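Quick one, T. Sequence first:
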Amino acid sequence: MYIWVIYDIESSKPGDKRRRQIIKKIEKFGLLRVQKSVFLGNIENNRVEELELFSESLINPKTDSVYIFPMCKTDFDNVKMIGLGFDKKMVSDEINNLFF
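Structure tokens:
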């Protein structure tokens, strides 16, 4: 399944350790960065739960957030971008090459 992961982790200084940890975990799953705190990829359902549990153990729920949005291919193909966005075809081709 396609998945979007968006995080907002409060930091008193740049390069916060928790932020680096979530980025490393997201990248370990093979998700591609499409904006600074936005990732997209295609992973198995059980991996989504693993990412959710990791995020819950890492963040402070009073100050931080991690959004995980599952999306089918049809919905991804219908994503609309206004202004400067990521290269949808490149991301789709990259995901297809990695996972299909």
